[in-house]
Amino acid sequence: MRVLIISDTHGEAKLLKEVCHRVGADHVIHCGDFTTDVAELPTVPLTIVQGNCDWEDVPKDVLWDAGRIRFYVTHGHKYQVNSSLLPIQYRAEEVGAQVACFGHSHFPVCEQVGNLLLLNPGSITSPRGYRTPTYAVLEILGDHSVEVHFYDPKDQRVPDRGGKYYLTSDDSML
């Protein structure tokens, strides 16, 4: 399964739709701050959460199961992701997630801590502290692993982010 993870598009619905179309993912996760009407979002299998700049009434966090991999999706501002990843790590572990997707900082992160992958796709419109706008594509592989690649909005691979990560699931959580 191929999952597009994107965040902080800040009103750029056209660019978001273009990226979704080009990537052709099985599922799209938007980690908030889409700052547009929900009706303007792409009509694809989509999990979205409310960011600190969003006005639409969508969930603030979501658990989404993709086979044996459980995703915890939130924007991140309520977990102070600009200063530490520990609060979001603890919350993701508490809900039994193997992947925590978040945004808010506009800075791409892909870091494994134990059996948890912390993933911030960055921002395709306004990166902060990183040289280029980014989004992430996560492939769920058959050997309890995932592979993550980061790209810029023109689909050029960002080589210094991502990798292959082994995750196990606790079947009692699913």
TrEMBL record:
GO MF assignments: hydrolase activity; metal ion binding
EC number: 3.1.4.-
InterPro entries listed in its UniProt record: Calcineurin-like_PHP_lpxH, Metallo-depent_PP-like, Phosphodiesterase_MJ0936/Vps29
UniProt keyword annotations, A-Z: Metal-binding
Domain of life: Bacteria
Chain ranges of the Calcineurin-like phosphoesterase domain: 1-140
The protein, known as: Phosphoesterase
